[in-house]
Amino acid sequence: MADAIIAQGLVKRYGTVIALDGLDLTVPEGTVLGLLGPNGAGKTTTVRILTTLLEPDRGECTVGGIDVVRRPQQVRQIIGLSGQYAAVDEYLTGSENLEMIGRLHHLGRGKARERARELLERFDLAEAANRTVKTYSGGMRRRLDLAGALVTSPPIIFLDEPTTGLDPRGRLGMWDVISERVRAGSTLLLTTQYLEEADQLCDDIIVIDKGRSIAHGTPDELKREVGGERLHVVLADRADTDVAAQILADLGPELPVVDHEAHDVSTAIAGPAPRMLIEAVRRLDKAGIEPRDIAVRTATLDDVFMKLTGQALHGAERETTP
């Protein structure tokens, strides 16, 4: 299987800020790579370089076998892109926006109109097709922007936080669309702040922090690295987290992971899970701590992310470029 996207040693600086610091990645054809990382990790910068919107200071990258820096125009002909913010013309109708994209890609008037109609139906926007986009809600604009990335049925698609701003129903619908595109042979690189989304959609995941890759593997491989089962304690009072962390440190095989925002302390299971759970309850009670919740759970990508970066992805803000 050939690689649809290759990046080697990408470096990007904004003054004294290092956005990317030697990032490598590959995405085989017909697969989905998820790029995860906290705010400012370099995710959006990576997407912008791979889609020809930025030039790297150092490094090489190809998309569809085409050098991104040397032949950007050819790269743009084979990719679809949906960024963090909907890039639609609010003074055109939904249908006109999609038809315009099709015409710019030389689909021809009839084909562009047909494709616009198909996508408006697919993204549940058919009833709003002839309304100007300035009357759309935020979620509707987001769906229209995502439809725009698919007008030409591109073989390689970049989605930067594709479901941010969508309600749960819209998010599930987008998952279906992404899965359909992959089954049809498209290659996807997506960034997301929803770890459930990465778990559901991605064949591989790269976790980046401070412009470097700090972990790479399938969702299951990454979860196995933090242990199959973990003991989670959720505290009612944030002030109790340090004491709870010390208790779990004494019981578990490793230092616990603490999510101060969620008042959550977790650690890998040592020995039989029921015995460790009972002992944790006994020690917490002795310390005068009554947890809001305590349970043994299968490791998730949230656990992976917390252990690797020291913060919860749900607390990360959107990345901004200086």
Describe the structure.
- The protein is of the alpha/beta class.
- It folds into two domains: 3-222, 3-Layer(aba) Sandwich (Rossmann fold); 223-312, Alpha-Beta Plaits (2-Layer Sandwich), CATH 3.30.70.
- The chain has eleven helices and 14 strands.
- Strands 6-7-8-3-9-10 form a six-stranded mixed sheet, with helices on both faces. Strands 2-1-4-5 form a four-stranded antiparallel sheet. It has a four-stranded antiparallel sheet with strand order 12-13-11-14, sandwiched between helices.
- Helix 9 crosses helix 10 (273-286).
- The longest helix is centred in the middle third of the chain and has 16 residues, at 168-183.
- The two termini are 37 Å apart.
- The relative contact order is 0.14.
- Mean pLDDT is 90; it is low at 315-322.
Summarize this entry quickly.
This protein folds into two domains: 3-222, Rossmann fold (3-Layer(aba) Sandwich), CATH 3.40.50.300; 223-312, 2-Layer Sandwich (Alpha-Beta Plaits), CATH 3.30.70.100. The protein is elongated and about 75 Å long. 35% of the residues lie in helices and 26% in strands.
